[in-house]
Each structure stands twice: as C-alpha cells, then as structure tokens.
Specification:
Distance between the termini: 16 Å
Shape: globular
Order of helices and strands: HHEHEHEEEHHHEHEE
Number of strands: 8
Helix content: 25-40%
Strand order of the largest sheet: 1-5-4-7-8-3
Strand content: 5-15%
Structural class: alpha/beta
Largest sheet: 6 strands, mixed
Protein name: Reverse transcriptase
Organism: Phytophthora palmivora
Amino acid sequence: MEPPGEYCTQRDVMREGRDAGSHLTQLDMSETCVEGQADSADEANDDPDVFEATHDAIPNNPEEDLRLRYLAAATSTNDDEPVAESDHRFAHFERKGETLHLEDYAHELAFLPDLSEEVPIELDYNGTNVKCPTHTPEQATRLTDLLKQNEQIMISSGNALPPPAYGVVCDIDVGDHPPIKQRARRVALKYLKPLYELLKGLLRAKLVSFSKSPWASPIVIVLKKNGVDIRLCIDYKKVNAITMIMEYAMPLVDDLLSELDKYLWFCSLDAASGFWAVMMTSRARRISAFGISNGYVCRLD
C-alpha cells in the first residue's frame, strides 16, 4: 500500500464549471469536427469485441474531449435501427424501469453519485443548530467567525462533496492476475445525453479522470423508479471475483464499552459522503477503471 499523503492533494473540492444543463443544440461546434469525430467512432465500432482506448483528441481539456466523444457517439448511434437477430453483439444493454431498480442490484454494482447539477453550498449561520440562547453576543460572534473560517470543509445538502480524507487510502489487491479489459457496452441514444451530463459532473468534481489503464469494467445504466432518470453504475463482478479479501479483526463490543466507561463526554461523527472522500492508490485506480462509448477508459480517483 502506498503512502496516504501522496493522494490527498490530487482531487480538489467541486469547482464551479460550465452550465450542466447545456444541450446538444446549444453546443458551438464546426461541421468538420463533428464529421471527424463521427468517422473515428465508426472505426471504433467496426469490431465491437476489440476494446481500444484512444487518447489523442484533447488531452489537456477532458470536458471538451468528453463533449466531442458524446457528439461522435450520438452521430454514430441510430436508436431507431433494430438489432439484427443474428448479431446480438450490438444490442443495447438496458432494462425497463419497472423490472430493474436501484435496490435490485445494490449489492452487485458500484453506484456513482449524480453530479450532473452543481448545488451551491449555502450555510445558514442563524439556524437553530448554530445559535444557542445561552451564548453571549461575544461568544456567538466567535462561533460564527470560526465556522466561516472553516467554510470550505462544511457540507450542505444536495450533491456537495467533501474534501479528500487524510490518513486513509483504499487499495485493491488482485495478486498477479493479468488485467481484465471488457469491451464497452453500447448505450441507447436516449440515454447518451444523461450519461454525458453525469460523466461531466464527475470530471468536474475530479472523482474520475481519463486513463490508459489496461483494466476496464463495463458500465450499466440503471433506471430510477420514475422510469426516466438514470443512475450510472459499474459492473465489477469480474474484478470482485479475483480481489483478495482484506481481513480485519473487529473489536468486541464489550471491550469497547469497558474502554468508554471511564470517559465523561462522547462525540459521534458521521463522515459526509465518506465513501467518495477516501482516496485510492495508483493500483486501485488502474484496476477500477471503466469503459465508456468510443473506446474511452475512465478511472475512479
């Protein structure tokens, strides 16, 4: 396992970006660029069983690169074209909302957060959880000033993300097993736009980044209960099958109670979005990579 401090500065908190609600018709893009990207997408789909990642589009601008990939996929995908019975390789991997819900696959898939809409963090310093009637005016002012000084680590409701946790990292140990690279599953045209917005939000939050990892797990589009909104998931079944189980000796409850018996004050803290605040080692980021349309590989950061 690698030193935890090395990864604590690799992801900033969620930054203000472009409007996540922009539509395809609002994108200013030349016809030549669209045709060029569409040709590349067609070439990538010539052999769907071969999964190759290309990284020469716009290496210094991942959001713009993702936008071009989305345009190429939307141009090359014909949602009205039926799938030939003899060629199921091009079948869309989707399920109807009434048959596949989040709770059905909660223990089998890795669910990524929905960051398609940026939610500003608004803190109420006059709320009942801040103001105390027993405080003097001086104490109330000191408390408010202290909270404002540490505003960057405060988490509000919505899709706000915490800064990276310090002193802990996540690692995935697969031993000497060779990389498993599964081809990207084709996404139906009606889900391309929501998928693009989800990936764009994850890029802005620096939860994912483009990668040349030799590993790639497929994504799964899961419909929410309303049958319209989607949740982006990753199918790690093959990776989980070869991952070595990390043993951890759970402390006994009686021992904990005996240890706490001598204390007068207790504090209980719950990490906000704690799962996504834990950084990953370089090895874990490579192994957790997932494939999207047009042969691109993203990794979790």
